[in-house]
Amino acid sequence: MTAQPCRTYHNQWLSLTNTLCMKRTFFRVILGVCSFFPLVASAQNNLNGQPLNVPTSSVPFLNFTPDARSGALGDAGVALGDADANSVFWNPSKLVFAKESKGVALSYTPWLRNLIGDMYYTYLSGYSKVGKNTAISGSLLYFDLGTVDFTTANGVAAGTFNSREYAITASVSQRLSETFSLAASFKYLNSNLAAGSSSPGLKPGSTAAAEISAYYHDEARDNATGKGVGWAFGGMISNLGGRLNYGGTQSYFIPTNLRLGTCLTLFADQYNKFNFVLDANKLMVPTPNYQTVNGQLVNVNANKNYFDSIFGSFADAPGGFSEELKEITLSTGVEYWYNDQFAARVGYFNESNEKGGRKYVTTGIGLRLQQRFGVDFSYLIPVKQGSPLADTFRISLVFNFAKGNGIGGDDEALNDEN
């Protein structure tokens, strides 16, 4: 098997491993770390023989959807209401409006299970309110890429290794008004793809990152009938941090991401409500721009400095503004709740064919028992046959421990903290 399906990781591994030759089991690393969005596009050339400009990064698992609720809504969640512990990933600023004062969530996702049987990622998160206007939270995202068999260029066995990556996040959220809140997060991430194998030059890549998020929500509802409407807006910049180095001469961008979204809630009565969610995501890493330099095809955006790369990612596509728009992925979904105890969900994820081509439908259900315990399940259905993401499912357990102050907040609560 060749590592060509992901150009970024192919070049990275060539520079790191030198003489190592990876057999079929190395391909699992390529598949896992690339999340398959470059698999459709970056390995191919356009009609003129030039490589397609698909932004890629190291450790893309940082942007994998970890929980089943948002996984059933087309991977949308930045403005989704009824916050629980999974909001640490999507938008921790929502946690100050959570109905309960403490909560924990655990999620599990077998990854590419139709191709490779021992890859998975799991997500553990929790939060606690501190006073009435502040919440602290934390999470662990762990990605196990399974066992990789190494061979030398001569085909001689060179040992095995269990590739793995993880990220630890701590967040502080603060409510600034009855309807608006902010949060700041600090993250440490570690990517150990092959350190400890037969190549002594390899080492784990690690770095720190920061995240900022904001959330606004309000509603107009009749207390007698329960009918009304609610609306929310959320935004988050995640994974603002340094590059990763695996022991070679090159360092690689982490997947800094801008996520903006909205949620419209329709309350049919006291028992039935619908959430309509929409998220837009933009990967804030340089768009590859291949030009001929001294007779060779070179990506001129590969070695830009950090700030030019991150903040210039909105205007560095060779095709201009129209190409930048194609780098925005859209996630949308509809969630129905009955009596806050049973939920049915459906969603859709769309990515431009020129930027990876991921398109899939998602669906799922959720159950809550007396608001103390919940379980969510989601299932992914690709639009195109043969997708490696086919049959992806997620399962999440949600635990709530104490009743909080409820969503909304009052002026007295804010004044007590000030």
Summarize the structure.
With 418 residues, this protein is mostly beta strands. Helix content is 12%, strand content 45%. It has eight helices and 17 strands.
Please report the distance between the alpha carbons of the first and last residues.
61 Å
Helices and strands: which structural class? mainly beta
Shape: globular
- Calculate Rg over CA atoms: 22 Å
Low-confidence stretches: 1-50, 404-412
Count of extended strands? 17
User: What topology, given as strand order, has the largest sheet?
Assistant: 2-3-4-5-6-7-8-9-10-13-14-15-16-17
Give the helix proportion (percent range).
Answer: 10-25%
| Series of H and E elements | HEHHHHEEEEEEEEEEEHHEEEEEH
User: What proportion strand?
Assistant: over 45%
Tally of separate helices? 8
Major β-sheet profile: 14 strands, antiparallel, barrel
Indicate the mean pLDDT. Answer: 83
Folded structure, characterized:
- With 418 residues, the protein is mainly β.
- The chain has helices at 7-17, 26-34, 37-41, 68-71, 87-90, 306-311, 321-326, 411-417, and strands spanning 20-22, 100-110, 120-130, 134-152, 157-175, 180-192, 205-221, 228-241, 257-267, 272-283, 290-293, 296-299, 328-338, 342-350, 359-369, 373-382, 393-403.
- The strands form two sheets. Strands 2-3-4-5-6-7-8-9-10-13-14-15-16-17 form a 14-stranded antiparallel beta barrel.
- A hairpin with a 4-residue loop joins β4 and β5.
- The longest helix has 11 residues, at 7-17.
- The model is unreliable at 1-50 and 404-412 (pLDDT under 50).
